[in-house]
Amino acid sequence: MASLVKGKILGVIGDEDTVVGFLLGGVGELNKARKPNYLIVDKNTAVTEIEEAFKTMCAREDIAIILINQHIAEMIRYAVDQHTASIPAVLEIPSKEAPYDPSKDSILNRARGLFNPEDFR
């Protein structure tokens, strides 16, 4: 019998609407240490707590992609910019209150530095 390889999961750091939306979509999970793969950020959430959750998710073997609201990524920009590994990939997403600004996306800016516009002509 073939061994089953468990798939990787999403991590989500965001405002309540964003995280609840993903949880309703079925992405919520607790690992063996009973740690969730999500963090709901509100006005009472300390920046240190957000940074700790981000670094913890980056270190987890079972998380392949971390989705983070861009306005929250701005709060821990130094930590997001320090993450250079391809897995987990960090994707900055908009929220209802804060639209997406491509100029602030560290991954997009890093990708822009890899390619010359002339390469696509």
Q: How would you explain this protein's 3D organization?
A:
The chain is α/β, with parallel strands linked by helices. The protein contains 5 helices and 4 strands. It has helices spanning 16-24, 47-59, 70-75, 77-82, 106-114; strands spanning 9-14, 38-40, 63-69, 89-93. Strands 2-1-3-4 form a 4-stranded parallel beta sheet, sandwiched between helices. The model is unreliable at 1-5 (pLDDT under 50).
Name its key features.
alpha/beta; about 120 residues; single chain; hydrogen ion transport; disordered N terminus; about 35% helix; 5 helices; 4-stranded parallel β-sheet; globular; about 15% strand
Percentage of residues in helical conformation: 25-40%
Query: What structural class do helix, strand and pairing data support?
Result: alpha/beta
Poorly predicted parts:
1-5
Rounded mean pLDDT is 85
Family: Belongs to the V-ATPase F subunit family.
Pfam family, one: ATP-synt_F
GO molecular function, one term: proton-transporting ATPase activity, rotational mechanism
InterPro entries: ATPase_V1-cplx_f_g_su, ATPase_V1-cplx_fsu_euk, ATPase_V1_fsu_sf
Layout of strands and helices, then pairs:
Layout: E1 9-14, H1 16-24, E2 38-40, H2 47-59, E3 63-69, H3 70-75, H4 77-82, E4 89-93, H5 106-114
Parallel strand pairs: 1-2, 1-3, 3-4
Give a short synopsis of this structure.
This protein has 121 residues and is α/β, with parallel strands linked by helices.
